[in-house]
Amino acid sequence: MRQPRDLSALAGDDVTVVGGGFGGLSTACYLADAGADVTLLEKNEQLGGRASVLEADGFRFDMGPSWYLMPDVFETFFDHFDRTPEEYYTLSRLDPHYRVFFKDGDRVDMVPDREANRETFESYEAGAGEVFEAYLEKSKRDYEVGMEHFVYEHRERLRDFVDLDVLRNARGLSLLGTMQGHVEDYFESPKLQQLMQYSLVFLGGSPHNTPALYNLMSHVDFTLGVYYPDGGIGAVVDGIADLGRELGVEYVTDAPVEAIEGRRGGFAVDLEDGRRFLADRVVSDADYAYTEQELLPPGKRQYDAEYWESRTYAPSAYLLYLGVEGDLDPLAHHTLVLPTDWDDHFAAIFDDPAWPDDPAYYLCVPSETDDSVAPEGHSALFALVPIAPGLDDSQEHRDRYREHVLDDVAENTGVDLRDRIVLEETFCIEEFADRYNSRNGTALGMAHTLRQTAPFRPSHRSSAVDGLYFTGSYTTPGIGVPMCLISGLLTAEVIARE
């Protein structure tokens, strides 16, 4: 993967970055390394944005991202600064990568051994082992070409795609159609289709609205592997923050921003407590819609309220963080519980918003891998149920759904948690909105639908305020920790070009 273009034009600039998620942390590192004086302001008490950490009574939970995927992206990021990820955190490859409990009583593990996975696919459908290999070859090509020529390239206008290099490399890519149509061309078994599509949750979409190009996630899953950084994703946040300090980034936490005023060469970023930070340029990693609608005056907004109302947002989530006595066998570090037909759940997110009656959900048990995240004799677990953003998440709804989820876990995995819970915390739509200023309480931002991918996502640069830029999941390349790291690179390049 390519290295950044010349960023030396940034030397000497005073830049304020608003928001300390992965996009903001990445942008700050690139800018500081190029010689800019960078101050990063984070609303909450810790860095990481949605990758916050919950610590209580000896338990430690990643509150948001918990899968370490696309290790090559992290290696490329650190390599730019002549460093390696291993200098900041330790990785272990998970085995199994994840376990799936289907609600008809079936159970399957996806493992680092590709041949074993091929045999698993063959056991579900005659000939599916060979098709599995063909699917992964297609996924590998889409990944390699897509990453080099689209993800790592700043192409935010339609005309940027109309050149010979793009057209030549796009030949054969799955640029049209949906993931559902794509996997149906390979597999008849609904279960195999689900195994090839579960990662869409990380992109905030459904099989019916996510572009087929994202079949590249299967290369990420089955070939590049699933890892765990000791201490969780929070350890990755700490590592990148440490790198930023080495490069000269100043971090200010507990610093909610109230307003952004001015233009290039004369910005003032005002905090709610009255402090003011002056800058030549400003980069926002805060929620894009919140930045535009709440932090900027009306005449300085690129998009009006109607634009933001018309967007398709990624799911929110009902999250249940549990400290539990004893072990949680047979749950794996990453466990998925899936109905054999998950269309109703996706419909309850994107078509007819409601709390899903038969949910597909994720269980994370980091204590299966890391003894440090729970006291001796205990386990740490969180349950994540994707739900529609903007739902009513009153205490009554949460209480009812807690019982529903605990019943479902017991019925479909055999693990009854009720009498063993010693710590319990919930996080849902209201907290996403309050803690992260998240539009409608979305957990991820704008979904990767056919009309919200690549040049159809909001721009890295403001067209209304000279010197204001954006980074993070709303911009290209999009949702997910690796994509936000790359977003930081693209934002830095846009600033350097200007």
UniProtKB/TrEMBL annotation:
GO molecular function, one term: oxidoreductase activity
GO biological process: carotenoid biosynthetic process
Keyword check for Oxidoreductase: yes
Keywords: Carotenoid biosynthesis, Oxidoreductase
InterPro entries: Amino_oxidase (IPR002937), Carotenoid/retinoid_OxRdtase (IPR014105), FAD/NAD-bd_sf (IPR036188)
Transmembrane segments: none
Protein name, UniProt field: Phytoene desaturase
Native source species: Halorarum halophilum
